[in-house]
Structures are given as C-alpha cells and as structure tokens.
Design brief:
Length: 577
C-alpha cells in the first residue's frame, strides 16, 4: 500500500478533485503542493472573468490550458480586447457567455469565431442594442453553434414612433430577417432562446422549423407577435423537438390547430405553458397524445380545474418535474389524491397555492420517494397539526419555503428530522421563525451548503455553535444578524464562499473583521446598507483575505485611483456601494 497519501496516482487525485461541486475549491487545493497545483490547473474547465487586468490574462490562459467555458457576463473592461486575447490563447472553447454587455463585441467575436471551431454554446442574452446585424455576425462567425441564447435584449424602445407599419425597417432590433439569416447558417443548432424579442413574428418560427432539422428546444417567452399559429407550425414541422417553452397563450381562447399540434410533436419531453389561459380540454388532449413527457410547467396558468390536471397526471405517472405554481384550486385533500400519480417526481413547485398546509408537504414527502427539490413558497405551510403519517425522505436535497408567515420553529424541527440530507433551504421572509428553528435545521441536516434567511427579522444568529464545514452560501440580507452571529460564522463556517449581509443593520466593522480574518475561502461578501460598517475597511479586506473576488461595499464608498489599481492587482472586483 502507498504510505504517503499524496503519492496517489494523478488519476486518483483527478477523480477526487472532480467530485467537488465547485471548481472554486481548486484555488485552496493548488496551494498545498506543486503537484496539486499542476493537477488543478489541468482539471479546471471553466473560468469567470470580471476585472479588465488584461496584461495578466495571457498568463491565466496559459495556466489553464483545458478551459472549455468562459463567462464574461460581469466583465468590466472592453469585451473586444478580451475576445482577441482568448482567440490567440490556443484554447479550445466549447461555451462562451457574453451576456449583459453594454455593446456587442462584433470584432472580437469575429476574430474568435475564426479560431474556435468547436464553440458549441453562446449566450448573448441581455445585451444592449442587440440587433439583426449582430445576429448575422454570430451566424457567420460561429457556424458550428448548437446552443444560442439571444433572449431579452436591453433595447430602448422609448423613441419608437407611434403607428409604425413595418417593424422590419427598424435596424436596432432582432426581427424576422435576422432569424431567417441565422436559420440559413447555423445548421447544427439544437437549442435557441428567443424570449423577450418583441418584434419577431410567426415567420421566425417558420424559418427555424423549416431550416433547422436538428432543432430540439425552443424558448419563446414574452414574444408579443408570436401567435398560436406560429407555435403550432413549429410543433408540426420540427421532427426532433423535445422541449418548448411559451407563455401568455390562449387569450381569449386556444384554437383547434394549436390543440391538435401536440399529437404531431411525438418526441416532446418538456412543455412550459406558464401564464397561459388553458382549459381542461387542452389538458385532456395532452394526456391523450401519449407523449414521453418528463417536465410540465403550468405556473400561474388559469381556467383549468382539478379534473383536468388529474386526468393529465394520471396519464403521465412517469413525470419527473411538475410546476403548478398558483393553482389556487388545490387543497390538501386534492393533493392527497394527486400524489398517487406523482411517485416518479424529483421536483415539484406548489408555490402561491394558498390553501395548502403542512398536510400537503408531508403527503408529498411520503408519496414521492424520489423527490429532491420542493418549492412551497407563499402557501399556508405552518398551519394545521401534523395529522398525516410522517415519513423520512432522505432524497430531498432542496427546500424553498420563503414567505410562509405561519411557519414556526416547531415546524422546522419536524422538517429537519424528515429531510436529514438537506443541502439547500430558503426560509426568506418567514417572520415566525427564530434562531432556535435555524439551529435545529443546521444541527439535524449536516449537509447544508446554502442557507437563505433574507428578511427574517427574528433571526439574530445561527442558533448553533457547532462546526458547519459544508456551509458555503449564507444569504442573510435584511435579517437581524449581529456581530455575535458573525463571530459564530467566523468560528464555525470554515468553508463559506458567499456571504450576503445587505441591509443587516446590527452588523458592525468589528463583526465583519472577524469573518474576513477567519473565513479563509471567502470569495464574495455584500455589505450594502450596512450603516455601522466603516467604508475604510474595504482596502483592508482585499489585502487581508486573498481569496476575495467580489465585494459590495457599504454605501458611500468611493475608491481612489490607487485603490482601484490595488483591487485589480489582487483580482478582486469592488462594486459600487
């Protein structure tokens, strides 16, 4: 046997390091030895860049030669310059995120497209003034794309003249012309997100369905000129379609052509009809279509009843993902009946179903043994006694229970017992819970990685003084956390990465110093509206905690030029306070 564990073969260390859920852990591992540095450099495949310290970037690309994904969505410098550097780095990228940019980096992407022939995924969402000419540039330079996101461009429509007749004449938007050009070029495209492009029409869906044989997924939410006719055409003429996401259909009615289209889309596995006016008749037609359905989203839909959804769920008992958010007719009794059809679920969202109480929660825990994520935000969770049989469900990893005003510490104690393997829990805006309930969760659920207690005004600390080695994210904005809580975090949360203290009025400079000094892996901290935290602490934080990558300082912080350069040299993005 190997005496020194560090002498394990590289392949073994690669398996161990790859089991970590976040590559940010590689940073601390790389400090252990030259061997670990070499292994983590080799394994890192994704990188998010924020600061424009361009002279250091070539060294970074040379260090991580196996990068496949680069995210520039928060990049603060000139995107063209960074894309030039990436194109000359010798990297073989597969995914690039250039969303949220103030201007589209036409020249940089053109240069990159000539070098990165394996680029398969491109995210251009939320770019300012993204238009047809930009879309055509994408199609001409990245011809091997399989996934494209051009959703929700940040266009200023305030200057549009009233009563315009030809929307194609406006060159500052994506229109059918741009989509047509794209469909003629990107023959390998499998997934496209067109959501929020207000001036595309049914013609765009016809171009995509007719010209892109491999198209599998279409997202067209908030597209005002897309009608049921266009959606019907896409479902009837996209032979490989497996997923479609639309919203706001069926007003005033759903036409027969649309209803019958599901019978043609034989491969549909995922359907999202959020915010739509649907009917029991449509749900029956969906049920009779005998699709290989795995995901169904009917969030904030209306005009259907318990009878319609019961028929549908009875037909699709292999469903894995179900969203019935704001189905206000649902009651605890009806959920007992429906749960018999939900034994294959791994995700359910029953948020905003105001009549649902503890009974429903414990029913789905018992009847859905494969559930890993439950959302019951803004319900009546916390009401009624626990009259149904209680069963431990070790599969549940994530609970989203925000805005349940009746939820109490006593309820949390039972939740903790029944969901022992929880990793994520959101209790934001649950005004009835205190640190006692939080402590019970943390004590019983040793795998907690993310805890959200935003606006929990009665939570002053974490309610437990035991080591929390798995906790990585604490979202506590607007809570009553104080310096005692921060000292507790400093002493017990050795692996915390993200700490949000926005608007925590009881936190002072002293408490923040405790966290920064002791939490060696801390990467992001938010101190906005922490009025008792001195703005002069920011430079000290950057210097004292090298792991920090992003700081949102207290309000009023205005860095000098020398401080800005200092922050950049240390690789830390300091946002405006």
């Amino acid at each position: 046997m190997t005496e020194n564990p560090l002498d394990l073969p590289p392949e073994c260390w690669e398996l161990i390091f790859n089991s970590l859920n976040d590559q940010s852990h590689f940073e601390s591992l790389s400090l252990v030895s030259h061997r670990f540095l070499s292994i983590t450099n080799y394994l890192r495949n994704s990188l998010k860049l924020t600061d424009p310290s361009t002279p250091f970037l070539p060294h970074l690309f040379n260090r991580f030669q196996n990068l496949k994904k680069i995210d520039l969505s928060e990049f603060q410098g000139d995107p063209n310059s960074i894309l030039y550097l990436i194109s000359r780095s010798g990297l073989d990228l597969e995914s690039l995120n250039i969303s949220n940019l103030k201007s589209f980096p036409f020249m940089g992407l053109k240069e990159l497209g000539t070098k990165m022939k394996n680029l398969k995924e491109l995210n251009c969402s939320k770019n300012f003034s993204f238009r047809d000419s930009d879309l055509i540039a994408v199609a001409e330079t990245c011809e091997f794309l399989e996934v494209l996101d051009i959703s929700y461009p940040e266009n200023d429509s305030s200057f549009l003249p009233q009563g315009f007749q030809n929307i194609q004449s406006f060159s500052f938007y994506i229109t059918d012309s741009g989509i047509e050009a794209l469909s003629m070029k990107l023959k390998r495209l499998k997934r496209i997100n067109l959501s929020g492009n207000f001036f595309i029409t049914d013609k765009s869906l016809m171009f995509l369905s007719s010209n892109l044989v491999l198209l599998r997924e279409i997202l067209i939410r908030d597209c005002d000129f897309i009608t049921q006719s266009g959606i019907s055409f896409a479902m009837r003429n996209s032979p490989n379609l497996v997923s479609i996401s639309v919203n706001g259909i069926g007003i005033p009615t759903i036409d027969s052509c649309f209803k019958e289209s599901f019978a043609y889309a034989r491969g549909l596995c995922e359907i999202d009809l959020s915010n739509s006016f649907i009917s029991d008749e449509l749900l029956r037609l969906l049920g009779e279509a005998c699709l290989p359905l795995k995901k169904l989203v009917l969030s904030h839909c209306y005009n259907f009843t318990l009878a319609g959804i019961s028929f549908l769920l009875c037909k699709y008992q292999s469903l894995e993902h179900l969203n019935l958010e704001a189905a206000n007719f649902l009651e605890d009794e009806s959920m007992i009946d429906l749960s018999k059809f939900l034994t294959s679920l791994n995700f359910i969202d029953l948020g905003f179903c105001a009549k649902l109480t503890n009974s429903t929660f414990f029913t789905i825990l018992r009847e859905c043994p494969l559930l890993s994520e439950i959302k019951m935000e803004t319900t009546n969770l916390g009401l009624d006694d626990f009259t149904t049989p209680l069963v431990i469900n070790p599969q549940v990893k994530s609970l989203h229970l925000a805005r349940n005003g009746n939820l109490s510490d006593e309820s949390l104690k039972k939740l903790a017992i029944l969901c022992p393997n929880l990793e994520v829990i959101d209790l934001s805006h649950c005004l009835g819970i205190t640190e006692e309930g939080i402590g019970e969760i943390l004590k019983s659920c040793c795998e907690i990685k993310c805890l959200e207690i935003k606006r929990c005004r009665a939570v002053f600390d974490l309610g437990i003084d035991l080591e929390l080695p798995k906790l990585e994210v604490l979202q506590a904005s607007g809570s009553a956390l104080n310096d005692h809580a921060l000292k507790m975090i400093a002493n017990t949360c050795s692996r915390i990465l993200h700490l949000d203290l926005d608007n925590c009025l009881n936190v002072t400079t002293s408490g923040v110093k405790e966290v920064v000094e002791h939490c060696r892996t801390l990467r992001e901290i938010n101190l906005r509206w922490c009025d008792e935290v001195n703005v002069d602490i920011v430079a000290w934080m950057v210097f004292s905690r090298p792991s920090l990558r992003k700081i949102i300082p207290p309000c009023g912080f205005a860095p000098t030029e020398s401080q800005k350069n200092f922050f950049l040299r240390h690789g830390c993005l300091v946002c405006k306070g």
